[in-house]
Amino acid sequence: MSPYTFKSVLTLLVTATLAMSSAHLAFADDDDDDHERGKDDWFESRQAPVVNAIYSEECGSCHMAYQPGLLPPQAWARIMTPDALIDHYGDDASLSEELRAEISAFLGTNATHVSQQMIPGGASNPSATSGGLPRITESAEFKDEHDEIPARLVTGNPEVNSFSQCNACHQKAAEGNYDERWIDIPGHGPWRD
Fold it and tell me: How far, in whole angstroms, is CA 172 from its chain's centroid?
C-alpha cells in the first residue's frame, strides 16, 4: 500500500468516525434521564384519537374526551360503573344504560393494548386512586412526565387550573399527540423537559 493510499484511508476513517459522533449527538434525546429511569415513553407516543362520537359528545361536553389508551380497561370499568358515574369526581355524570354500555365498551376495547405495556406500574394499578376512582394524573407515568413542571404554571395558572386540563398546554392533545414539541403553557410558552 502506498503511503498516500494509507493516509487517504486513515483520513476517511477519522472523518467518518467524527461525522457519526456528531450525528449521534445531534439526534440524541434531550431527555436521556427518562430512559435511564426506565420510562416507556407512554406520554411521548401518540395515543389513538377518540373516534367514538357518543363518547366525545357525552364526556367531551364537560371535559376533554381523554383517549382510552391513557388508562387500562380495569380503570375505565371502575369509572364507568353506574355508582361511579353518580359521583364522577364530584359531579353527577349519570348516563342511560344504553349510553353507559356503549361508552364502556369503547373505552375498554381501546385501552387493552396499553394496559399490557403499563402493568404493573402507574395507572394500570387499580389502587392508583384518589377519591375512590382512578385518575390519569395519579399514574406513575403521568407524574414522571410532569414532575419538573412548577405548580404555578398549571394549578396556579388561571388559564390552566389543573393537570387534568391536558388540552390547555398540549396543543394536539385532542388528536392524542402529547409530544413535547406541541406543548405551549398559557402565559409561559413552550416547555422542554
Answer: 11
